[in-house]
Amino acid sequence: MASSASRAALSSIPLFHEKLLKSNRILAVCGAGLSAASGLPTFRGAGGLWRNHNAVDLATPEAFDADPGLVWLFYAYRRHMALTAKPNPAHYALAELARKRPGFKCLSQNVDNLHVRANHPSDQLSLLHGSLFTLKCTTCSWKDPYNIADPLCPALAPAAESNPDPTKPLPLLDPAQPLAEIRESELPHCPDCKTELQRPGVVWFGEMLDEDMLDDIEEWIEKEPVDMVLVVGTSSAVYPAAGYAERARTKGRTSVVTVNLEITEEDWGRMRKGDFGFEGDASLLVPELLRPVIGEVKGEEEEEVKV
Ligand code: BJW
Ligand code: ZN
User: Fold this and answer.
1) pLDDT tens digit sequence for 175-193
2) CA torsion angle 134 140 142 147 (round to 10)
3) How many whole angstroms separate alpha carbon 273 and alpha carbon 270?
4) Coiled-coil annotation: which residues (predicted)?
5) Segment 138-165, tens digit of pLDDT
6) pTM over 0.90
7) How far is ligand 1, taken at its centre, from the CA of residue 19, in Å?
8) How confident is the model at residue 307 (pLDDT cuts 50, 70, 90)?
9) Which of 51, 82, 100, 298 gets the highest tally of CB atoms within 10 A of its CB?
10) End-to-end alpha-carbon separation of the chain, Å?
11) In contact, 186 and 131? CB cutoff 8 Å
């Protein structure tokens, strides 16, 4: 565990600002906690259940093979929620940091499109786990890079309904209410090969991330030493994302900065001299931490939903 003196240094905003102002090469690794203040649930811990299913268990090719209707309802609901949500001040702050610091690159595990809607420059953003709004064929190479139809098809309409009685849970989310069974024939099929199902363009467990994107990240890390890594709203439980902070570390130079609602004793214990940890809501902390570089966050710039 870090001693109380070093704990004070680890959480010092003035010391962090001093380091930030000297940092040009900055990497961010973001996760679901970044979008929590936008109303989107995280995967692990409270909020990680969808009906009576663990959200992580639905994010697998095996779950899709076993029950594509159920998995499509889960993703259709998440598409609907993400379309209804708005980027929060942390998304806008990171987008502004990208404009102010050309040496900043943001790696995000989030598939909700909120970075893009906050106008994050696309050449400084890598969407590690794809997007809810990309559709692809389960088998052939057909892909629709951006589709925001909501509902995507009539069978998925229950996922796009507003709650008829806000005093009760949405019927779709209430495990006590049975789901109408969805036949494969009612789900969207590939317009090219015709026979196979469409699936969300996200990366499930056991699937490879886009290789060009991984090469690009590797090249970025290798190019020059990294001054700072911001690890925002992620449990750092999933690889390769969880490995990038240590991968980018040059001992004695790189500050790894954890921003999370909950920082465990183990997390504090792993921090080294020059690292930082800030416990709280990312939507409040990220704009405050980046203020010396980005100024006040202007959050109302979103004009249209786009990739
Ligand atoms: C707040 C907050 C607030 C809350 N403010 N904070 C090396 C070792 C061991 C295993 C592997 C390895 N390399 C690869 C693997 C296998 C596997 C893996 O990592 N397994 C682990 C379980 C160990 N990885 C893969 O399979 C990846 N593929 C791959 O590597 O291919 C090659 C290969 C395969 C097999 C073996 C070896 C190599 C693919 C990973 C794909 C992950 N997919 C998902 C679903 C995406 C689609 C979807 O969205 O549905 O990605 S799973 C899910 O977890 C999702 C997330 O992006 C990801 C990470 O979750 P995240 O974002 O961190 O969310 P949470 O909920 O976990 O945490 C939220 C955090 O926020 C918490 O800490 C809160 O405290 C905090 N928080 N509110 C700030 N307001
Ligand atoms: Zn196809």
Assistant:
1) 999 888 899 999 999 999 9
2) -30
3) 10
4) none
5) 999 999 999 999 999 999 999 999 888 8
6) yes
7) 29
8) very low
9) 82
10) 43
11) no
Q: Which atom of ligand 1 is nearest to the CA of 234?
A: 63
Structural Rg of the chain based on CA atoms = 20
Structure tokens at 56: 């992580």
140 is in an annotated binding site: yes
Reported as a pLDDT band with limits 50, 70 and 90, residue 2 is: low
Determine the Cα–Cα distance for residues 276 and 270; give it in Å rounded to an integer.
Answer: 11
Residue 4 has pLDDT above 70, yes or no: no
For residue 166 and ligand 1, the question of a CB distance below 6 A is answered with no
Question: How far is ligand 1, taken at its centre, from the CA of residue 111, in Å?
Answer: 12
Strand partners, 260: 279
Residue 8 and residue 105: Cα distance in Å, rounded? Answer: 28
Q: Whose CA is nearest to atom 44 of ligand 1?
A: 204
Determine the pLDDT at residue 162. 85
Q: Which of 240, 235, 161 is CA-nearest to residue 205?
A: 240
Is ligand 1 within 6 A of the CB of residue 206? Answer: yes
List the Cα angle 131/136/140 in 5-degree steps: 150
The one-character DSSP state at 276 is E
182: left (phi over 0), alpha (psi -120 to 50) or beta: beta
Ligand 1 pocket check for 67: Cβ under 6 Å: no
Mutation to probe ligand 1, out of 43, 204, 231 (largest number of atoms < 8 A from CB): 43
